[in-house]
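Retro notes, structure queue

What went well: the backlog is down to a handful. What didn't: a couple of records were mislabeled last round, so from now on we paste the full input next to the output in the thread. Example, using YetF domain-containing protein from Citricoccus nitrophenolicus:
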Amino acid sequence: MPDWSELLPLSLPVGELLSRGTLTFLGLTLLLRIVGRREAGGLGMTDLLVIVLIADAASAGLTGDAQTLGDGAVLVGTILAWSLLLDAAAYRWPRFAKLYKARPKPPVDRGRLNRRTMRREFMEEAEVMSQLRLHGIEDLRKVRRAHIEPNGLISIIPYEDTEIGETPEPPASWGRLPRVSTGQAVN
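Corresponding output:
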């Protein structure tokens, strides 16, 4: 029978546990943001980070590496709190979101490879072409734009109903848009 009085109390001060969890989460978030996200697959980098840190913090309490389960609980709570706080801040303040959240990057733009993006993401032409083939596209010129999404997957926007190399025309249904000046109603 476990001795509950030794399992639940904290072995370290709460402030130290909060500091450790905060510094670890923020430091790894910054490193992952700098390194990139191409290898993440279906998860966002922050999601992956939270999962790994929670698993590590919880396992320390489960395997006995930490002194008590309370230590692991404080660390898990700290990690989740920072994850929620940063997501809420990114939602509330768009300028912060630009720094914190990854944005899509185009390895293909108007039927041409974007070598700068490919260099930044360490992608070779063969990898881009492989992704195009997975989307059923064999000719690079048929791609209006491709994006490496924040979760690491590549989305592709092909040209529609145009010959290769042609610039598509806007639909006829758009017609001519009415001019609007300040204080004037549009009929």
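Agreed that this is the format going forward. Reviewer comment attached to the example: Residues 117 and 123 are 8 Å apart (CA to CA).
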